[in-house]
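hey so i finally got around to running the thing on that chain from the lab meeting. sorry it took forever, my laptop kept dying and i had to restart like 3 times. anyway pasting the input first so we r on the same page abt which one it is
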Amino acid sequence: MGETKTYSETDVAIVGAGPSGLALAIELGSRGIGCVVIERNDRVGYAPRAKTTNVRTRTHLRRWGIADKLAAVSPFGVDYPSDVQFVTRLAGPRIALIPDAMNCAPARDDRYPEHGQWVPQYKLEQVLREHAEGLPPVGIRFSTEFVSAAQDDGGVSVTVRDADGEGRIRCRYLVGADGARSAVREGIGATLQGTYGLSRNYNVVFRAPGLAEAHGHGPGAMYWQVNATAPSLIGPMDAPDIWYFMPTRLPEGFKVTQDSAAALIREATGIDLPYEILSSDEWVASSFIADRYRDRRIFLAGDACHLHPPFGGYGMNMGLADGVDLGWKLAGVIGGWGGEALLDSYEVERRKIHEEVIAEAASNHAVLSNELLAEGLEEPGPAGDAVRAQVGERIVAAKRKEFHTLGTVLGGCYGESPIIAGEGGASPVPDSLHYHPTSRPGCLAPHLWRSYGASLYDMFGPGFTLLCRPDADSHDVREAIAEAADAPLAIVRLSAQEAGTLYPARLTLVRPDQYVAWRGDSWQPGVLGLATGRGASAGADRTSYHADAAA
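ok and heres what got predicted. didnt touch it at all, straight out
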């Protein structure tokens, strides 16, 4: 091996320029923390990967000032229907319809400031990458491969390789956001635990001018084809005329090659068109979670620490949320206002969410088109209509929770976190179909539109925010400001009508990631010490920060 040729220093090195790594870089860079992103590829290609950017992810983009940029690159426009249709074939009858999957309709909603969006992941990555590159503290090195890392008490030495040979980066922290085959995960000795091989499937990307007009079901985000020829999903992916086709639960040995894919699409859809195959890739559905997310100064995020079947649209969005959670916490520690407990809380908070979502995705995966087949489903006339009506009822009962997921997307809570002033008792159990906003500590701060049309979230500062009802004592507010010291703290006053039942406490402390850290009717000393990780300690009674508990 040749001599190591270069040496550079930064606060955080990030391996992987996918959504997790880029979100982390944006969180750090927007707070003035230096970081370098190492990416072995250039991210150019047709691979479909995720296609849904959910309401929570777009809310992060709004916070970063780039939600409108993502909307602008939507291939079909943000008002394109995200309906999910179940059909026998594209050329056959409809069986069931689930409207507005993933809350993509652009109408204003009190529960969130940004609707979801049907957009290929590579377009999201483009928007994230351009924004990250515009932040002075952020550097991105494409065509650069992570080789190894060695850490000591002062930091991490990272060896990388590019076209010019090997180089070294010295950093305070290293984050592996390098996907399912994470070299960083392997380097720290963490292992994935779970189940491999839940099903064999293919992603086929193809160009088919005229396909949208060749069927009578109207626009939609995806069409689930329920037939014995090829149980599958198919739908529009990008302009011009680029579609994806996903045959599911294929038997061992069944191959969908570039040569055979077009014929299979014709059979599955019942529509004979010239299909130009762009790519055909096998993928295996599995459920895994890493046994640990951290080794001292090295962390894992995104697919590097959790994998699950892609049914429910959670994976990419959950990985991006990992980057957000870890990003503001690393920024707090490096910036001097956060304590080590911030970093300790990362795995505690995110693992619980990952476990809940993995279980939800596995449940969704248990019912694919293969499980919905029924004798007579494609028969014409009243007999076939009766079978389709019966199967349609089964579909709505089993699959609605896969596409109306707001309870899972917004309802997950961090009630067991060591930096949350919990109120005792179990955290609310997420209900995928129904989101119940609550300002209980550990949960996402409820959204509301202010009287003049602005989102409450737009009033939050880049650090912590103290929400004050009209009856909040000014002395309590001054105490909170004094305790904040170097920690960034914004004060936002709510009217009685705005606070309503969503914010019943006179004071509510919200974290940089918009989750509630504490609430109470009078300020309790030590609250910000807990929330910033400066005063949190293992085994401490976190309920003692509430006046009623202290009394």
